[in-house]
Amino acid sequence: MTNRIVLPVDRARAVVLVEAIERTDPEGAWLPLPDREDATRRARALLGDSSTADEVAAAIASRADELIATLGRDEPALPRIARGIPTGLLVGAALLIPLIYGLGRSILGPGNTIDIFRNPLILLVLWNSAVTVVSLLVLLFRARGPKRRRDRTDGGDRVPRPPLLSTRLGEWLLALGVGARALRTADRTGHRRRALTEFSLRWRSVAAIPLATTARILLNIGALLLLSTAILEAYLRGLFTEYSASWHTTFLEPAQAERLAKIIYGLPAALLGRAVVLPGAGVGEPAAGWIHLMALAALIYAILPRLFLLTGTIVARHRARRVTVSISPALARRLRARAITGFASVVVSPYSCRIPEGGADRLRALLVELLGERAVIEFASPVEYGAEALDEGRQGGSDPEHLCRVVLFALAQPPETEVHGALAHALAREDAPVIAVVDASGLGRRFGSDDEGRARLAERRRTWDRVLADAGIEACHLDLARDLDDRSFAALGRALAATQDGVVR
Hints:
Layout: E1 4-8, H1 9-24, H2 33-45, H3 53-72, H4 77-83, H5 87-103, E2 113-115, H6 120-144, E3 150-152, E4 158-160, H7 164-178, H8 180-185, H9 191-206, H10 208-240, E5 244-246, H11 254-272, E6 285-286, H12 288-319, E7 322-326, H13 329-336, E8 345-350, H14 359-371, E9 376-379, E10 403-410, H15 417-428, E11 434-439, H16 443-447, H17 451-469, E12 475-478, H18 486-497
Parallel strand pairs: 2-5, 8-9, 8-10, 10-11, 11-12
Antiparallel strand pairs: 1-7, 3-4, 5-6
Helix pairs in contact: 1-3, 1-4, 1-9, 2-3, 3-4, 5-10, 6-10, 6-12, 7-9, 7-10, 10-12, 11-12, 14-18
């Protein structure tokens, strides 16, 4: 049984938020416990007898949506936090900002003279070319490296660690999605702030790859639009303004400047079928040809590589559209357990023993997890030592076909074939299925925690197993003095599976 589910990113966000609230508010001061139980029960009702992992994940997401809606009545910002920032809004901002900047600025430089080596368009081309080369080297290193660097989420899932720059931008988007105003105003009791802080930390871990790829997509879109609008702005200005091209340098001789020009403009000039011939130093010439070379250089060295990076990032974002989310083990048990509707009532009969304090509540909760909320759990009076039958106490006179008996023995009491074995044989002959729970409360402290004590404890369990197995009853070993965990859930589930009617998967 696993406590991890896989969900689309947009639905996983609400699940992580609800999980953070439940972790930081165990007493139900903000999110009442009855509301949680009602939502869990309704989510369980969505599942069939043998639900798939996707169906369980969808039920958990439905439960999270319901609880977010409940909290949203008093905290309107919470549903917005659960939804995050709409992708369209982010893409719109990525398009609008460079569009305004590129069109509102003279990309050819001040005045009417263009420096062919030092102007904003060439600087943009050089910057984007450097970013592309570094990005490709990082991808090559990560693909051919001996082992990818990985981070571990708090749920135990391992995810690739994204590049530093995109991670930082992704975290900024995360903070924007959480909502700084909500963090500032939602501190009435302290639960809100703790829950949202916990959510931020967990979501950063769960959605590291989607956040990073989204950030890279926005960066690439912004760079492409800035380059495109810069080129368009250059041509628009050239239509109404006469520009001349020249070059100025302190350290380069004419021959060295010409070699540099051929490095920058050689390939665009070859594609246009012209030679790279520098104007005289400080002497201008008509700039139309150089504007064409600059635009083609931007296309070759910056726009096409950026399109390649954008395509690869979109593919990576599509692959990361589903994330793994950790949920509480108790919730996983409640939703993954098959409700055994054949058992309408359960009678728990302690045999010559006392249930430890809180043990009845723990056993009742475990039975409800396995049998469903509709099962009626009744605790009968303890049966005296030597009795050969149990009382007929049943809730509402249930039909034996819908009744399950749970006999509670104490592991501290050595089993006797003439007493405990005889009772087990008598119970096995009855119509109602029987489960034998052997409670180890207190015996571990009596035997000690050293190797000898553990060996004596194991031998006592084996003795009980043999006595009960002779009657065809499987022993279920629990410790009702402690909180019952997944191992206890599995043990009681196996015991139920061994009964005539119950089947647990």
